[in-house]
Design brief:
Helix content: over 70%
Strand content: under 5%
Shape: globular
Number of helices: 8
Structural class: mainly alpha
């Protein structure tokens, strides 16, 4: 199995000296590509069940997104870290606290669709740790966002989780 890392990509010619400017901010395409590589590595580790490795990659993705001002990427990164910690919590409950922390951060930076996802995930994790009232409140917020988006599927998910 070959896992491509940023260092591997740079060794193959993706050096910052070859990067193209993206915006007036002075950002380069390489910084954007670096973030995508971290995200892709995180997904790969998640799919392999190596959730702690995924968390590390998603946190690097988060750092790049913050650096380049990518708010959508930042929301995605918070969600990915939260879900990875949620999966780790299935084996060691101490990770549920971290999951909640990142889902809350996701909720705070997300658009309407992201807020729906964050509340669903928060409801699930709160239920897993026995905080039934917080779980129900978050699923109710998720239902409100699903209604706002006119998403029947989203409404079904939120109602099923209540």
């Amino acid at each position: 199995m070959l896992i491509l890392t940023i260092d591997f990509l740079r060794a193959r010619g993706s050096r910052t000296t070859r990067c193209q400017p993206l915006h007036a901010k002075g950002l380069t395409k390489c910084e954007q590509d670096e973030g995508r590589a971290y995200y892709s590595s995180g997904v790969l580790f998640d799919n392999l069940g190596k959730h702690m490795n995924a968390v590390e990659q998603y946190k690097k993705f988060l750092a790049v997104c913050k650096k380049i001002g990518d708010s959508h990427g930042e929301a995605l990164a918070y969600n990915c870290v939260g879900v990875a910690y949620q999966k780790l919590g299935e084996k060691e409950a101490k990770y549920y606290k971290d999951s909640i922390e990142f889902h809350l951060k996701h909720k705070n930076v997300a658009d309407v669709g992201g807020k729906f996802i964050a509340h669903v995930n928060l409801g699930i994790v709160y239920d897993l740790v026995g905080e039934k009232e917080k779980a129900a409140i978050n699923q109710q917020f998720a239902l409100r966002y699903a209604i706002q988006m006119s998403s029947v599927a989203g409404q079904s998910i939120a109602i099923a989780n209540l």
